[in-house]
Design brief:
mainly alpha; elongated; binds protoporphyrin IX containing FE
């Protein structure tokens, strides 16, 4: 057994939750952007002979976005749970992973990309909750603003990691590591196929 069942379950739940979180961000900046939608609201109302203030159009656009963004927080709680789950795996899981020193340069690079990812996930969880609980934590506005800038900057790591990771495991599975993707599904070591 290369990956234990509890490790595989963690991997796929984590993949779903992170793709979901990134999805909410893409919607916030894309189809549900208040900038674009407030313009649409103003132009359409104007065509209908109704003039409204820019601030009102922005308020409507943000109200349309709000129920979607609730999912960022819901998935945020799920991510916090997955961080605790992964820490527990670190201490108790019996998945068989190669020793870092025994790996070739490419595999070392892959491992390093996972270590950075773990640090990034922990940072996103802490900074996300710090913003969400800014009142309870009595954080100054300037502090929240800096946290938000960092949260948004670090977000870019996912935009690099996710396509590279998915393309990487597909290419490795086709070339020399046949069955790599199914080991993350069925847990068997590759030589038992
Ligand atoms: C949806 C398509 C995905 C597929 C097919 C996939 C597949 C895999 C496979 C085969 C491995 C083992 C690779 C190895 O041994 O180096 C792996 C590891 C890993 N994947 Fe994914 N993955 C997917 C999505 C994701 C996403 C979205 C994330 C999070 C952003 C993620 C996070 C990880 C992490 C952290 C590991 C390393 C686990 C460890 O050894 O500590 N994966 N994935
Ligand atoms: C994979 C993890 C995460 C990613 C990729 C992510 C990404 C982002 C991005 C890019 C923004 C800025 C959006 C914008 O202003 O255009 C943001 C804002 C925010 N995120 Fe996250 N986030 C993650 C985890 C979390 C978690 C765990 C929480 C905790 C509940 C959280 C709470 C928030 C809050 C409160 C905001 C500010 C929203 C606002 O100013 O209205 N995030 N996130």
């Amino acid at each position: 057994m290369k990956y234990t069942a509890i490790f595989r379950v963690w991997h796929w739940l984590n993949a779903i939750v992170i793709l979901g979180l990134v999805g909410t961000v893409l919607l916030r900046k894309g189809f549900l952007s208040w900038r674009t939608n407030s313009e649409i609201i103003m132009t359409k109302l104007s065509d209908m002979g109704v003039e409204i203030f820019k601030e009102d159009a922005v308020a409507i656009a943000k109200a349309i976005r709000a129920p979607m963004w609730e999912w960022h927080i819901i998935l945020g709680y799920a991510l916090a749970f997955l961080v605790v789950y992964r820490i527990a795996l670190f201490f108790f899981d019996k998945s068989q992973k190669e020793d870092f020193a025994s790996l070739d340069l490419h595999k070392k690079g892959v491992k390093v990309s996972y270590y950075i990812l773990y640090a990034v996930i922990i940072f996103m969880t802490i900074s996300g909750f710090a913003m969400y609980l800014k009142e309870e934590l009595a954080l100054a506005d300037a502090t929240v603003k800096s946290i938000k800038e960092l949260h948004e900057l670090v977000y870019n790591y996912f935009l690099i990691f996710i396509p590279l990771h998915i393309a990487g495991v597909v290419v490795a599975d086709i070339r020399e590591e046949h069955g790599l993707i199914s080991t993350m599904i069925n847990g068997r070591t590759k030589d038992k196929f």
